[in-house]
Structure to design on (249 residues):
């Protein structure tokens, strides 16, 4: 079997994916995150890059742990956390995405009267995590088969939490799988929760709030609690990659 290290070495380098991220309309992305708590990032990865990343999953090399969701009541399916050093394309995208999202994260915290501020560079934020014992990398690959799903949840791994994360769809809807929609819910104070399905194509990503986000009310800003998950796959296989910007304890 080809090792993950060998496959990782054969992956495209970060430069092209980073250039696509730079070319996105970040003003529109910020507007959508402000208004809805999520924003689609179209065509960040090519089909070839998606296939190469998904092909890492069967290997053990390059990952620090594997989680079978059903054993923990998380749903059905499984996922693996990458180990350091991350593949170049993932490290590059993680760094670039953070730099684009950090100003919005700071704006959110300021509006919610949260004292935490995020540095401009991801390496500085990761040092903050590591200095406090959050040293385990959190980027991950997820694998679903027919009947699998991911319960609504939040990816919190310690005291230090970056409030936005990004998930990439590596499989092609309608061809590789059916069902398996990305789902978000918004828990509003004294109101029923609002669900939203985010349609994605292969190579698209979605940026979304990890835990809560600010919403302007009639008199002041209030916090809306967010959760995300994946609906039941009806057929086929679905791979996704998640980029979380804080590390785990």
């Amino acid at each position: 079997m080809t090792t993950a290290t060998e496959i990782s070495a054969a992956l495209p380098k970060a430069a092209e994916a980073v250039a696509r991220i730079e070319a996105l309309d970040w003003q529109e992305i910020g507007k959508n995150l402000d208004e809805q708590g999520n924003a689609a990032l179209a065509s960040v990865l090519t089909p070839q890059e998606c296939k190469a990343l998904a092909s890492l999953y069967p290997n053990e090399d390059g990952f620090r742990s594997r989680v079978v969701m059903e054993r923990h009541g998380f749903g059905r399916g499984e996922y693996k956390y990458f180990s350091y050093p991350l593949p170049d394309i993932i490290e590059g995208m993680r760094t670039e995405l953070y730099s684009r999202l950090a100003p919005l994260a700071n704006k959110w915290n300021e509006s919610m009267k949260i004292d935490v501020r995020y540095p401009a560079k991801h390496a500085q934020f990761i040092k903050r995590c590591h200095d406090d014992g959050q040293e385990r990398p959190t980027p991950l690959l997820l694998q679903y088969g027919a009947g699998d799903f991911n319960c609504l949840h939040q990816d919190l791994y310690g005291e230090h939490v970056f409030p936005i994360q990004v998930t990439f769809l590596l499989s092609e809807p309608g061809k590789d799988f059916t069902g398996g929609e990305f789902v978000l819910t918004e828990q509003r104070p004294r109101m029923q929760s609002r669900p939203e399905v985010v349609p994605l194509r292969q190579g698209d990503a979605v940026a979304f709030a990890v835990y809560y986000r600010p919403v302007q009310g009639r008199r002041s800003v209030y916090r809306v609690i967010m959760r995300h998950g994946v609906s039941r796959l009806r057929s086929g296989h679905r791979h996704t990659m998640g980029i979380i910007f804080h590390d785990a304890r």
In short: The first strand starts at residue 38 and ends at 41. The chain has one domain: 4-243.
